[in-house]
Amino acid sequence: MTGILGGTFNPVHFGHLRAAEEVRAALGLDSVIFIPASRPPHKTQEIAGAAHRMNMVRAAISGNPAFSASDMEINRPDISYSVNTLEELRRLRPGHEFCFILGMDAFLELASWKSPDRVVSLADIAVITRPPYRFGELAASPFLKGLDAGMLAAMDSGGGKTVSVRMMSGRSAHVVPVTAMDISSTAIRRILKSGGSVRYLLPEEVASYILFNKLYQ
């Protein structure tokens, strides 16, 4: 099974990378594909050019053979919708199984996405830690069933392990607690704009690329 991690990656940072690695290990995924969005429908803030964000992702993952990057969304002329990406992946790799990795914040907003029922029918879902959201909030999700409140509480207290349940679509949802690295692209851009240091927030290759290309300044 292949993990799919989409996002703006504006810029990519250690929070993205560590979460992908922990999900890969927890679920035994063969690999994880990072897919930068071109025109994400839910983002309105300043976004670096798609080519720059693609280059930063490639630089960030270059040392991990289990990670790869795809430009399938940035080559799409219209808005990037996850349902279109998953459908395209299924066409490109018939018979292959995918696991769509989502932060808890994104999963809780899934009902507002384009064709959410189709999204959860095309791939398994891995729901991961995203501060300040708590796993207990997943109990209200219309896409999940059979979640144990005690297990979710244990995850929120730092003692829980991965829990897998069936979604209404019949596919599996995996609730995966990962290291809660409270790093955000928004905060990184703010630091860069003020001339501060972003060392240890993102890979050196990405920081160098940002400075060389004068991004977010």
Topology:
Elements: E1 2-7, H1 14-27, E2 31-36, H2 50-61, E3 67-69, H3 82-92, E4 98-103, H4 104-108, H5 116-122, E5 124-128, H6 149-156, E6 163-166, E7 172-176, H7 185-193, H8 204-212
Parallel strand pairs: 1-2, 1-4, 2-3, 4-5, 5-7
Antiparallel strand pairs: 6-7
What is the CATH topology?
Rossmann fold
Structural class: alpha/beta
Mean pLDDT across all residues, rounded?
92
Element order, helices and strands?
EHEHEHEHHEHEEHH
CATH superfamily: HUPs
Sheet with the most strands, sense and barrel status? 7 strands, mixed
N-end to C-end Cα span:
39 Å
Q: Report the C-alpha radius of gyration, rounded.
A: 17 Å
Low-pLDDT segments, ≥5 res: none
For the secondary structure, the number of strands is 7
CATH architecture: 3-Layer(aba) Sandwich
Question: What is the helical fraction, as a range of percent?
Answer: 25-40%
User: How many domains, in number, for the residues?
Assistant: 1
Beta-strand fraction estimate = 15-25%
CATH class assignment: Alpha Beta
State the strand order across the main sheet. Answer: 3-2-1-4-5-7-6
Shape: globular
Helices, by number, come to: 8
